[in-house]
Amino acid sequence: MSALSPQLIPLDAPTLVEASAGTGKTYTITTYFVRAIVEDGLRPEQILVLTYTKAATAELRGRARDRIVAALELLDAEDGGGDLLHGVLCDEVDRLGRPEVERRLQTALSEMDRAAILTIHGFCQRLLQDHPLEFGVDFDFEVSENAASLSSELASDFWAMELYDAPDWMLRALEENRVDATHLTSLAGVARLPNVELLGPEPCEVDEATVADWLRSKREAGRIWVSDRDAVLQILAEDPGLDHRKYPKRSVPTKWRAAIDDFFAKPGFRIPPDVMPKLAAGQMATKGSGEEPKHAFFDACARLWATQEALAPGLAYARFELQERFVDFVRAQSRMRRDEKAVFTFDDLLAAVYAPFDPSNESSGSFDPKRIARIVSAEYPLALVDEFQDTDSVQYGIFRAIYGDSSAVYVGDPKQAIYA
C-alpha cells in the first residue's frame, strides 16, 4: 500500500489505488465502504462494489459487514489501535454527533442483505432488469450460464456449413494453423464482445491456376522421389558441398525421409514439410563457397516451393477471412437470440449495457447515454471497483461513461493483470 494512507483518499473523484495481495486490499475497500456510510450517509444498496467472481462477492460482503461492526466498536474506543477509521469516526462525531453516526452504522448493518456487492456481470444484469426500456432489452430476458455449450454449437454449425465442400487447399491451410472447431469455439467468446476486431493480412485471393501448378509440381517431384529416393538421401547426407549442420546425417535418413514420404504419399494439396526449402535448388545451404548438388529432384522441389510461396499470402488471408466470417456469424446469431428469444450470455449482458455508451452507436439515436448515466450514478453514487487490473476496455467504458469525473475508486494490482 502507498505510504500516503490510501484509506483516507477523497471519495468524490475518480481514483486509482494500487494494491497487491497481502497489503490489506480488502481492508481498504471495506474502509471506503464504511466511510461512505458515515461521511456521505449512503446506504449499502447505494454503494456499488464490483469484483470478478461470486466467491469474491461473498467474501467482500462478509468483510464489509465485519467492518461496520468494528466501526461501531471504535465509537467507544479511546484509542483506535492504529485503525485510521477511528480518526474518521471522531471527525464525523464532531460534525454530526454520536447518535447520528451510530444510527447510520446500525441502519447499514441491518440493510447489508441489500448491499450492491456484485460481479460485473451481476451488475449488468441488474441494470438491464431495472431499466429495460433505457437499454432496449426485453422485460423478461433470460441469462444462459452455458455459454461454452452455445459457443461449441455455433462453431460446429459454422464449420459444417462453411467447409463441407471446401477445396483441399483451404482445409490444409486451416489445419496448418490449427484453425478448427475447437479454435472457433474459443473465438466465439471474443466475437460476442463489442468493438473487437480481428487483425490480419491484406486481402489476397488464392489463384486456382497457381494451385493447379502446385499440384503438377508435387506430382513431378513425388515421381522423382519415389524412383530416386535412396540416391537423394545419400546426396543430402554425404555431399561435401552441403552444410551438414543444416542437413544432419542422423536426421536425413530418418526424420527427413519420414516427413518427405508422408508428404508425397498423401494425395491432393498438403502443406509441405519444414525441410522443403532445403530441398529446393537455389536455396540449399552450402559450406561457404561450396556448390549445391545437382539432381532433378531438387529442381522439381524448387518449382514446387516457388508455387507454395506464391500461394502463401492467399492461404493466410483465406484463414483470416474465414475467422472474420465466423465472428460475423456469431454476432448475428447472438443478436437473433437476444432479439427473438430474449436469451443473454454473460458477454451479451456486457454488450447490452455498453451499447448506449458505444461511440459507434451515437448516430443511431436509439439510446440516451447521458440520461442513463444520470440514472445509474444516482442509484449508486459511489463505485468501488476491485481487481481493476482485470478490467477490459468494454468494462472500463461502462464505468467511465457512468461515473466520468465523479465518485469511483479503482483498486488493483497491475502485476497480476490477466491482460498483461
Please explain how this structure is put together:
The protein has 16 helices and seven strands. With 420 residues, it is mainly alpha-helical. Helix 16 links the parallel strand 6 (382-385) and strand 7 (408-412). The chain starts with 14 loop residues before the first strand and ends in an 8-residue tail after the last strand. The strands form two sheets. It has a five-stranded parallel beta sheet with strand order 1-7-6-2-3. Helix 1 (25-40) runs parallel beside helix 3 (84-96), helix 7 packs across helix 13 (296-341) and helix 8 crosses helix 13 (296-341). The model has no long low-confidence stretch (mean pLDDT 90). The protein has helices spanning 25-40, 54-74, 84-96, 98-110, 120-130, 132-135, 147-163, 168-176, 181-191, 208-238, 252-265, 276-279, 296-341, 346-354, 369-379, 393-403, and strands at 15-18, 47-51, 117-119, 142-143, 343-344, 382-385, 408-412.
